[in-house]
Amino acid sequence: MKVIKHFVLVLLILLLIGAGWLTASGHQRYKEAIAEVPLTDKIEEVKQREDYTPLDQISPDFVNAVVAVEDRRFYTRKGIDVISLGRALLTNLISGEVKEGGSTIPQQLAKNLYFTHKPSLTRKIAEVFFLYDLEAAYSKDEILAFYVNVIYYGDGHYGIAQASRGYFDKEPSELTLAEATLLAGLPQSPSRYQLSSGKDLALHRQQQVLEAMQAVGLIDAAQSQAALEWSSNYLGI
What we know:
It is built from twelve helices and no strands. By secondary structure, it is an all-alpha fold. It has a single domain, classed as Biosynthetic peptidoglycan transglycosylase-like (Penicillin binding protein transpeptidase fold, Orthogonal Bundle).
């Protein structure tokens, strides 16, 4: 019994040391990033883009789809998503590599503004520091608008305006439920889901988006089925 207690104690100490090192390393990455370009300057660059689209000029179906599938607790949570982050950290520590993200929308925004997409635990920690900066300076609607305007949708389309015009030849405000949910699924893996080469995968991903919306009561089964049928016809599947 003493041996087991000793082993557990040593393990806990090692975990605490590892967590401390990761936090310090992540904070250092955060400080270096904002020292090079302050967050307010990065955000201003986004807002000055010619095709920047405010949230009130984007289809509500698209906005709802993004939140439902990517960060369900976005509007009700302050700070980190303890549930998602804890699950992701446990998975990553057990595997010894970054297999699961657990990122919220503000963290994903930070990643797109400052970091490469190569996963690392220190980057995940740095994203958390940016999360608190973002939520202190901007509203939830503003953060969501920044996010959908910078993420990549595949086929050379950066931001919702380019994606909406490039894929459907219409403005973001005009997107239907089918179009909106198809687009909302692309950013998870644009190279796999882009509509030029990943139609089957994109349709499967859209189904996941629609199921997420159904789960929170935003749409019903009939609307979901109609959207999938439209997309299947549109994509020629």
